[in-house]
Amino acid sequence: MGNVLRLLYGQCCKPTADSDAAGYHGVTVSTVGVSALAQDLYNFEITSQVPQGLSKHVVSSKKAQANWYRKLSEAWRETKPPPITPEEASRLVILTLKGHQKADVEGLLTFYGLPLPHILVELTSVAPPSRPQGLKFELYTLPIDAKAVADGDTITAYVSTTDQRESAIVPREVEVAAVQRSKARAKKNYNKADELHRKIIDLGYRVIPVQNQEVLARKYRIRLRGIDTPESKMDYGPKAKEVLANIVRGNCLRVLVFDEDRYGRFVADVYCDGIFVQELMLKKGLAWHYKAYDQRPELDKWEREARAKRIGLWAASNPQMPWEWRKNKREGRY
Question: Which of 56, 214, 254, 315 is most buried, by CB atoms within 10 Å?
Answer without folding.
Answer: 254
